[in-house]
């Protein structure tokens, strides 16, 4: 197999690693391209296992880039959420099929709470199923240290995960009911679909108005949807889409895209809403909608 064909075969996996680490397409693409350039410029005789070599290089590049991004994110206005991967056609497997598991917005939100090395160790072990010896080589740490990082990360992730897995059709049906209630500005109906301690996280990036604090409670979360409909009567429309591998919603105001929304569901109630409003993160999403859509 040539370098080019090997890289083409591994590109989806490398992108999946880099996106989970960095949360944006551009950063993930840069990591993948840099990994290819390093393979192309390497001493091929010294690269005995090209696949493992590329995965290691991509992981290290992602860690370095994430460290560099941390200072930028500390100055970010409001909460930082990943760039959503949006698919409008559920029947299209698309090249992002490798992102279908463990890439939900809720999962990525928890990953943001981990250090770059914790994040890498956890992903390599729990998502990509690498042995601890391989992870230790990637990170330049002992196996014991890697086990400890994965254990700590796993505890934090489990604290944020729903207690009960929700089938995709049930998830979609619940969103349909919530979408109808939001479309009609029915705050009471929305509250019945939200957990009492539901939370809402919004990312405007300082580019558009957005909540700078996490909203807590079914009343406040429902109220945020109601207030937009109240402010723009008959102008708010929703469209279902698959966002980061799960059913989600696109919201349009006056026919223009306003946000991409992901939902964490537990025990037939919405427990968290993640709203990406930063226009820089929505460039790949249809920007307009017609009344017939």
What does this protein look like?
This protein is α+β, with helices and mostly antiparallel strands and 293 residues long. Among the domains are: 1-75, Rna Polymerase Sigma Factor, Chain: A, CATH 1.10.1740.10; 168-281, Roll (Nuclear Transport Factor 2, Chain: A), CATH 3.10.450. It contains 10 helices and 7 strands. The chain has a 7-stranded mixed sheet with strand order 1-4-5-6-7-2-3. Mean pLDDT is 90; it is low at 92-99.
Topology overview:
Layout: H1 3-22, H2 25-40, H3 50-74, E1 86-87, H4 105-111, H5 116-127, H6 132-139, H7 143-160, H8 168-183, H9 187-193, E2 194-203, E3 215-216, H10 218-231, E4 236-243, E5 246-253, E6 256-266, E7 269-276
Parallel strand pairs: 2-7
Antiparallel strand pairs: 1-4, 2-3, 4-5, 5-6, 6-7
Helix pairs in contact: 1-2, 1-3, 2-3, 3-6, 4-7, 5-6, 5-7, 6-7, 8-9, 9-10
Domain RNA polymerase sigma-70 region: 6-70
Subunit structure: Interacts transiently with the RNA polymerase catalytic core formed by RpoA, RpoB, RpoC and RpoZ (2 alpha, 1 beta, 1 beta' and 1 omega subunit) to form the RNA polymerase holoenzyme that can initiate transcription.
GO molecular function: DNA binding; sigma factor activity
Descriptive labels:
alpha+beta, 293 residues, single chain, 10 helices, Rna Polymerase Sigma Factor, Chain: A, Nuclear Transport Factor 2, Chain: A, DNA binding, 49% helix, sigma factor activity
CATH class assignment of the domain at 168-281: Alpha Beta
What is the arithmetic mean of pLDDT?
A: 90
How much helix is in the residues?
40-55%
Number of strands: 7
List the total number of helices: 10
CATH topology of the domain at 168-281: Nuclear Transport Factor 2, Chain: A
Domain RNA polymerase sigma-70 region: 6-70
GO molecular function: DNA binding; sigma factor activity
InterPro entries: ECF_Sigma-70_Domain, NTF2-like_dom_sf, RNA_pol_sigma-70_dom, RNA_pol_sigma-70_ECF, RNA_pol_sigma70_r2, RNA_pol_sigma70_r4_t2, RNA_pol_sigma_r2, RNA_pol_sigma_r3/r4-like
Domain RNA polymerase sigma factor 70 region 4 type: 110-153
